[in-house]
Amino acid sequence: MKITKDLYQGSLTLLLDYYQLTMAYAYWKSGKAEEEAVFNLFFRKHPFNGGFTLAAGLEYVVDFCSNFKFSKEDLNYLGAMKNQDGSRVFDKAFLDYLKEMDFSCDIDAVEEGTVVFPNEPMIRVKGPLIQCQLLETPLLNLINFQTLIATKAARINLSAKGESVLEFGLRRAQGIDGALAASRAAYIGGCSSTSNVMAGKLFGIPVSGTHAHSWIMAFPSELEAFEAYAGAFPDKTTFLIDTYDTINGVKNAIKVGLQLREKGKEMLGVRLDSGDLAYYSNEVRTLLDKAGFPDAKIVASNDLDEHIISSLKNQEASISVWGVGTKLVTAYDQPALGAVYKLAALKNSKGEWEPKIKLSQQSLKINIPGYHTVKRFYSKDKAVADMIHLEGQEYTKGSLVIIDPSDQTRRKRIMPAFYQEEELLKPIFKKGKKKYKLPSLDEIKVKAKKQLDSFDKTHKRLVNPHLYPVGLEENLHHLRMELILKSKEENGAD
């Protein structure tokens, strides 16, 4: 099967949940389809109990929205849907409406590689209500996973403290799409290469790898296997040394390394994939150094993650390259980010934005209403606070108080005049036309590192990270509280 042709059939517009279509149809039937709306995509809690999240997936969003159009095949499929009584689910006139519908939304978003925090809009969509609604699931799908993996990769790379992290997860990833998206996001998060050759081809990510245990087992002896591999790759020799016995394995690697040296080549290193990595890496390092190979690297793999790497670093393991697979590409300890997409405002007949509030028994799930945006304040190159405020609203440059949306007792006073400001939401589409120049993947990776460097190390620690200040500008906070109380009164909520 040709995946793109036979499975996707050239269109991804139906990559949505069915209820978006039923709502779209009902909007159309009730005459609300063209009302102007604002939706925000955001998350409520950092993944992995961490103190930061790294945004990724925007390039996929740009590609999806640039090609947002119901194809003939899409419409034929929808037209064939039947109710229980045999009648069509969707009127032909509605399908004709979808056929003529051109993407016309404004989209503003944080750039890939940006460090983001709960309740901040990562993507803001403004446009016809029907189009905004149809974008809900695809945008969440494209942002949720890559942001999750980029964040996991960043945590792993921070734990490695500047040493190379290789992404090895293809065989354990959730399908083809999951594997490719994970390799891309892991590279943004700081990984230096991938084992995924397709990702290398599509995204330009450096590829790396050595050999498996089966290579060793295919020869009469480990030594002969190493010699044969060195003969095939004299300039790229890293030997997997734990097929039978790790200590004997490194001794055989040293023998072949000396043979390579006689030919003017140099063994790059060895890889450990099992056993007590702290103990064996130190034993192997001693043997390599005594044999005259102080520059040979020791690569470790075997179900690594940020916590295991941190532990091995604390044990002073002699490992300088980390191969991370399953626990990275599957986000093993938290399989979903949980970003949501909520209506924030509707434009009324007077052309005014009416803020919309969603209530919940869980205060965490009460959204931030209104057409709002987010600003970051820096002191020199260090981020000090983020402020969520209504778009276009003037605020004092003197003294500001920002209020945590999840705990109004937690407040921070800032003096904007003493800081540099950055609007985090950048214009991506204007009335359906792309305005944003996509950076290269390497540029995104550099941005991610610069962003992470701009935050204090206390926000990036693995356990009990310090809370970075994010708050609502006072007027937005008061508006939110007024709407909560008003909505409870009008809807009879306790």
TrEMBL record:
Catalyzes the first step in the biosynthesis of NAD from nicotinic acid, the ATP-dependent synthesis of beta-nicotinate D-ribonucleotide from nicotinate and 5-phospho-D-ribose 1-phosphate. This is Nicotinate phosphoribosyltransferase. Transiently phosphorylated on a His residue during the reaction cycle. Phosphorylation strongly increases the affinity for substrates and increases the rate of nicotinate D-ribonucleotide production. Dephosphorylation regenerates the low-affinity form of the enzyme, leading to product release. It comes from the Bacteria. It comes from Algoriphagus sediminis. Keywords: Glycosyltransferase, Ligase, Phosphoprotein, Pyridine nucleotide biosynthesis, Transferase. Belongs to the NAPRTase family. It catalyses: 5-phospho-alpha-D-ribose 1-diphosphate + nicotinate + ATP + H2O = nicotinate beta-D-ribonucleotide + ADP + phosphate + diphosphate.
